[in-house]
Amino acid sequence: MIEQFTEFFTYPFVYRALLGGVLVAALTSWMGVLVILRQSSFFGDAIAHSSLMGVAVGLLLGINPIIAAAIYAVIVAFGLPYLKKHSDLPIDSLLGFILPFSMGVGVILLALLPGYQPELVSFLFGSILAISWNDVFIVLVIVLVSFITMLILKQKMVFASFDSEYAKITGIQVTKIDVIYNVLLAVTIVAGIRLVGIVLVNALLVIPASTVRLYAKSLNQMFVFTPIVSVLSTFLGIYLSFVFDVPTGPAIATVSGLIFLVAVVTHKL
Length: 269
Description:
By secondary structure, the protein is mainly alpha-helical. It is built from eleven helices and no strands. The chain has helices at 2-8, 12-38, 41-61, 65-87, 91-112, 118-125, 133-162, 164-169, 174-213, 219-244, 248-266.
């Protein structure tokens, strides 16, 4: 077992995978705390699935699919408040429209591409072991921009998440904070697509924060310990996918789920 663990670190792609994985795990875990506070996990799920349309457009136009997916996700994030204002429909109904519509258009566009599309499977279920340095650089830029923005607006975002009406009374521009939150969540999800894929990225966003919430005694503890659980899940998932030759995304999601189940069973003991 020790020999196999040592061999794991002899491959160059492992360092790319671990670096990319740690960056995405840290970013998704911080955003995951806000997602849990706002109870907006369905929004994350809808953004993740609808980003398939951005991936398809990127492949069709010959540009980086992650960048194309990020642009589309940001458009969705900006478009949601507009649709809500002009339709008077609840946000869940709008997300229920965006998710199937975007996935449907995405699948149709992918069907128009000539030949077999091996990248489609990697975008659906992740392929971090095949991640390139270019992908790592894109994720690094997203992480840095998102982290600095969160650092500057953390208090306002937390306040608006707890009680939006009282936040308005205190002078916080909740609508602008909500748009920034939606954009950050959208680009965070897109950054995680390479790691666990469109289908499973929401698991990395929600499960670590939910696990830590069972034990955390304050919000600050959630922001500190959620990245630790997320990075641990990601590392174990990548390592087990290497050892057992299974897809990386499902391996990370499975490890995260098992840690959550252990936390649920033990926190009342």
